Amino acid sequence: MLKTITLLRSSLSFRAVCSLHILPENASVSSKGKSFYYSESTLLNSSAFLNKDLKNHDEFSADVEKVYRILRKFHSRVPKLELALLESGVVARSGLTERVLNRCGDAGNLGYRFFVWASKQPGYRHSHDAYKAMVKILGKMRQFGTVWALVEEMRKENPHFLTPEVFIVLMRRFASARMVKKAIEVLDEMPKYGVEPDEYVFGCLLDALCKNGSVKEAAALFDEMRFRFSPTIKHFTSLLYGWCKEGKLMEAKVVLVKMREAGFEPDIVVYNNLLNGYAVSRKMADAFHLLQEMRIKGCNPNETSFTIVIQALCLQDKTEEAMRVFLDMERNGCEADVVTYTTLISGFCKWGKIEKGYELLDNMLQKGYNPNQTTYLHIMLAHEKREELEECLELVKEMEKIGILPDVSIYNTVIRLACKLGEVDEGVRVWNQIEAKGISPGVDTFIIMINGFVEQGRLIEACDHFKEMIGRGLLSAPQYGTLKDLLNSLLRAEKLELGKDVWSCIMTKGCELNASAWTIWIHALFSNGHVKEACSYCLDMMDAGLMPQPDTFAKLMRGLRKLYNRQIAAEITEKVRKMAEERNMTFKMYKRRGERDLKEKAKTQLDGRKRRARRRRWGSSHHSLAKTL
User: Fold this and answer.
1) Of 59, 160, 196, 264, which has the most beta carbons under 10 Å away?
2) Distances (CA, A) of 509 to 75, 233, 502, 513, 569
3) What is the average pLDDT score of the chain?
4) Which residues pair with 29 in a beta bridge?
5) Could you give the CA distance from residue 308 to residue 207 in angstroms, rounded to a whole number?
6) Are the C-beta atoms of 258 and 243 separated by less than 8 Å?
7) Bridge partners of 34?
8) Phi–psi pair at 191, nearest 5 degrees
9) Backbone angles phi, psi at 36, to 5 degrees
10) Residue 76 pLDDT grade (very low, low, confident, very high; cuts 50, 70, 90)
11) Burial code of 486-519, b = ≥16 C-beta within 10 A, e = fewer?
12) Gap between the Cα atoms of 154 and 185, Å rounded
């Protein structure tokens, strides 16, 4: 039975009901035996959302969509792209560039193409917001060389645009890439661009490092810079957060002591970070003790404090205890917010208690709180676990009815489940729906769709989506697993030319490939019997300045010996020998290491096959014994 939030099955449309407010304050709407309440505030907010949605169709909307279609069509052919943009009648102007960059989403290459084109148009100059947005996008793509070139351009043409916020964005991007030294270098480079870092900028750097798992480096930097930048409570709070996030409570308590020595008393944020540390370490008794201590010291727990404890209990499948904390929170006069309700709904849905999740959603709506995309995502994930595609699709419709636009995460869940159930065409329909609504599919959306096509043997469509992903600038090291699966699937299906076409697309679109990407392609060719092609691409790899891994070289030499092809073997060997010398490595050591790695991999594969065989044998014996008993 569908558990959906069906709203207003009357002859009046939802838009009309929102504008007239004809539902009484205590109205309850039935949905297939389940009652859901929609307060007047919920309907008012939905109406406001719809009105806002209409306003979005302003002077920019038509041009944004026109530009986006052109970028998608000609992104790989710059001269044609620039000509198409000129002939489109679109005029580069303030506000349009920012909207186009936002429309491109994760497809940073598309956004950058338009950014460059717009900068060449007469009478137009990029705004501070456009530069800042471009720095964010390029940083996310890890195109840090281009980012610094952009900063240099700003210094020459618009030096007043170089504000601390631009450098803070860059710091955060380096920190998220775990490039700690580079993030710190930004702090040192700022004075060269006429911007002096202060305590606030330094605090942002510490915050970025601590939030991205580099708290140890952040603590060392804090000690090193404490005479250059006067410590603030934000600095201490960031360090406390970092240690608590990693569950290192002793280090967190040391920070707390230093904070008090510096003359700062813990506030609610500090206490909540400590609470989170206890929660991460599953020390719930200490967490409850800290709640009591907060009350004694006059720092009453807020909704965030209780939500932290509720989340920790939910993660341990202690949902009933979490409900008691929730009720205790309300008794103490602390109003639950959307985050608290979402946390509880997430906890119940995680452990398969969807009915309770819907009950809490009903309670939330009765109290006038508007659920958000995250609230629905947790319910959606619970339906995905049960493989209930129809319920997921219905939930998307109901979200739209009450004015909550599903985001990419929601759509990804639906597409992933559709592909898992073999209903790839349904996934394609949802994909088209995303594009039609002006939402840019992210890298995860592409990966889900490509994997779905590969599993169904629809390799041409998989290649089309993969090339589209490359064209939007979304291929990076984390997607190499998908690249490997696609190339191996193509070669197993004897579609060598299609595989070459994919690789050619990667090369011509300017993707920054490392040795791992080349190794995936070369090994895929070799494993599927295309030894000469594998050797040819190995030579291309070395021409690109990348040295093959030792086991790749050893594997190719074995293959060439079987083919009695001494000429190619000699050519590869000579190039590898020169590259080894350039890297202060002896060729003999390189060759020996390759042979050793090959043997170890073969042994690992053999051991794995033996383990799987034993599991099958003992598993079937155990099953037979159980049936006998």
Assistant:
1) 264
2) 9, 47, 11, 11, 30
3) 83
4) 36
5) 20
6) no
7) 31
8) -60, -30
9) -125, 135
10) low
11) bbbbbbeeebeebbbebbebbeebeeebeeebbb
12) 19
Query: Degrees (nearest 5) of the Cα angle 434, 438, 442?
Result: 60
Tell whether pTM > 0.70. no
Question: Which residues is 30 bridged to in the sheet?
Answer: 35
Cα separation values, 64 from 119, 141, 512, 520, Å: 16, 22, 29, 38
Note the pLDDT tens digit of each residue in 236-272.
999 999 999 888 889 999 999 999 999 998 899 999 9
- SS3 of 442-460: the string is CHHHHHHHHHHHHHCCCHH
Angle between helices 496-508 and 480-492 (to 10 degrees): 150
28 pLDDT band, cuts 50/70/90, is very low
CB 341 within 8 A of CB 369: yes
Q: Give dist(CA 233, CA 591) in Å, integer.
A: 56
Does residue 37 sit in helix, strand or coil? strand
Element (H or E) spanning 28, and its range?
strand 28-31
C-beta atoms surrounding 16 within 10 Å: 12
Distance CA 56, CA 47 (A): 14
Per-residue pLDDT reduced to its tens digit, 349-405: 999 899 999 999 998 888 888 899 999 999 999 999 999 999 999 999 989 888 888
Task: Round to whole Å and give the CA distance between 466 and 451.
Answer: 10
Place of tokens 């609610």: 268
* SS3 category, 494: coil
Q: Tell me if residue 304 falls in helix, strand or coil.
A: helix
